[in-house]
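QA checklist item 7 of 12: single-chain prediction sanity check.
[x] sequence parsed
[x] length recorded as 151
[x] structure emitted
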Amino acid sequence: MGCCRVWFSLSRDGLLPRWFSKTDRAGVPQRVTWLAGLCAALLAGVFPIREVADLTNIGILAAFLVVCIAVIVFRYRRPDTPRTFRLPLMPIVPAIGIIASAFLISQLDHFTFIRFGVWLVLGLAIYFGYSRRHSLLNPESPRHNDPPGTR
């Protein structure tokens, strides 16, 4: 379910084509929900579930590791930025997250790292080939000046 929300949000922010951010009358992003479901079913039906689980684990752990690092860097580089929540024991809590994630990643099979590398290269190719130019944060994006309700 999280995949659908991330995919929808990436599309809404211009990092993926707008077609993916369309919703039905109830506000449900049906297109990405169907596509993610079909992709998950295809992966589960074709590949051994252990390989799919390991690839999912390394992706989530890598993302969490990057977030923990970013929390520390952001807190020190921009200490005056308003925060919506307080982080207790900063930087100990994110450091524990970094260590725990790195440990769990290190326990994965080396073929998982190869698969993760392929997916990472594919993701970077999409980012530099499409997303960077179309991001709403890019002032030169064709959608940069769209009214907020149409994004």
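[x] summary fact logged: The CA atoms of residues 30 and 136 lie 23 Å apart.
[ ] second reviewer sign-off
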